[in-house]
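Q: A reviewer asked whether we had any structural model of the full assembly, not just the individual parts. We don't, so I'm hoping you can provide one. Inputs are below.
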Amino acid sequence: MIKQFYILIVILSILIISVVWDYMRYDRAYSSRVVSSIGYITGLSSPSLSVSYYEPRVLMLDSSINTTYPQMMTIDRMDFIYAN
Amino acid sequence: MLTKSSFLYFLTLLLFKQRDKHIGTISISIVIIFLLSSILFISSSIQGSIKIALESQPDFSLSRVEAGRVVDTPVEWIDKISDIDGIVDISPRVYGRYFYRPKEESFLVVGVDFFDEQNQKELKNLIDGIDLKDFFSRDSMLVGEGVKEFLAEHFYSGDFSFKTPTGKFKKVRIYDTIPHQSNLISNDMVVMPIDLAREIFGMSEDLSTDITFNVPNDSEWDTILTKLHLLFYDLRVVEKREIAKAYSSLYNYKGGLFLILYLITIVTFMLILYQRYSMVYSSEKREIGILRATGWSIGEIVKLKFYETLIVVVVSFVLGTVLAYIYVFVWGAPLLKEIFLGGANLKNQVEFAPTINMGLLSSIFLFYAVPLFGSILIPVWRIAITSPKEAML
Amino acid sequence: MIEIDNLNKVYNDGTPQAFNALKSINLSIDDGEAIILNGVSGSGKSTLLSIIAALDKPTSGKVVVDGELISKLPDLHASAYRAKSIGFIFQHFNLIESLSVEENIYAPIVHIGLDIERIRDMAKRVMVEASIEHKADQSIRDLSGGEKQRCAIARALVRDPKLIICDEPTANLDRANSMKFIDILSRLHSRGKSIIVATHDPLFKSLPFPSRVIEMEDGVIVEG
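A: Here is a predicted structure for the entire assembly that you could use as a starting point for your response.
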């Protein structure tokens, strides 16, 4: 095999070894402990979604409530999805 | 010996001498594998972390429903629930969203009964070296990293004043930050003593957000659910197993987002390859014709191109996967994580725990390699079976 | 020894565009003999050469080379026969542009299981013979017509084949290079190689070595 191919193999091997090393050195035990603790203390496991609870469902449409049916959920609000 | 094999020498020589031909395929492949692997890594990591948190969660949470909407749950229900055999660890929960300003950024405020011994123990596990005496000496809270950063941006460094429903402000000390390894769950969290949370939400002592309990014997779960529904007509029970199923389908690679992504990827890939191959077709055809004319058999031509494609596939896959690993687990997947977690509320500095699912990586490899082999080797075989004279024209 | 018996080749057989390129060709070529196939374009010379080299299959008839029926060989055996017994020099050289001179020369033999050092030695030997060794690392794209021809010759000789087949070898060469080519052919002939050249170049009318001229017209042998 030609020299450039050997260099390619070496580079790929270094990349794989680096990834494996990073994977192995990660402190999984501590990370699990922390997540488990917060899960126990709060009783909550849902991911922390970074969502704007009042974001319009239709982009740039920010209308006011339907005055004819004030109880009805308007099309442009997401809070009824994210509400408890 | 492999290193002296003239076939391998020629194979690698052709590969490098014609690298312009392969660079296009490799680049497209790396992008596709990078995207697929990044999404796979993110979802695997999220699933892994949520699974751990879910294990320590109570088996059931029960809340009151009024006209279809969830409302605060009476604490007095706890006495009735505790009469049901098989139920243990019943406790009320107080939590909710606190909006910094109306319709602006919000935090998830969670009230915890820190007089519970197990909660205290877990608190010490969570914050290394926490001084519980100091923590309880005045109104204090633990905040997630996103909250800490947000408050710092708004010049709150040592404490924050919550506006209560009575109109009064309640100053609470920021005791410490929840470790960033749990950012996936705690980024927007504020953890405080349960009474303090009640004060902030204006919730009286006889109310709670919901009630949680455990049922150690899982074969009794259905029975207990039935009993509960008979006990209260206006309740909603959420089971841990339902949550687990919901997360699984949300972040499962067989689910909607992934399937669509795979299909789009494969179709795009095939189109690009087909177009690329029709461009290099004539030079490839001539080269194969020359080799055939000088004594290479059809099988040997196909073998040459097979190994050539295999090297391209392996190189692309390794580079794509490694780039995806670095992007997700070293850089925290900027931009892409917002598909999973959003980016409109607090900034989420999630740290994804490295999780590699070899089964899924193999699936990505097959999804990518099989069409690529097909789209390269089928035209090669068709040229190889043509008369060499015709191929060389 | 090559025996051609009642050879026919029809292109697009069974269609309205059917074309009879070779009609009942009968020919014998002895070992060490030099044959010049003369005829205008379309007379069937190239088709006949392709069939002798097992690059194409006849519609009917037989081609027997050293007792082996090569006109009906399956691909694996036909390729092996081509690799071992035939050195083909094409009209347009048919070299792989992305490779160098040396790489083009050993391309036909890398699949036979020898190690690379041996392959390179074999290539070097024929490069010297074809007087092209000084261009070994040069890309084909940078060669002149004469140099490309010598590279093609070297490639044809790398396995020391018994039969050298040349299809219009001087069509793209000037007179000086054409004479050099004929000189090389002469040396090969003196080593006992059988040579078949398809050409309508008048330079081949007076060769420095004994040869038989076969005239072809419209797919048949009219003379010789």
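A: Points you may want to mention in the reply: The helical segments of chain A are 3-25, 28-42, 79-82. Chains A and C do not touch (no CB pair under 8 Å).
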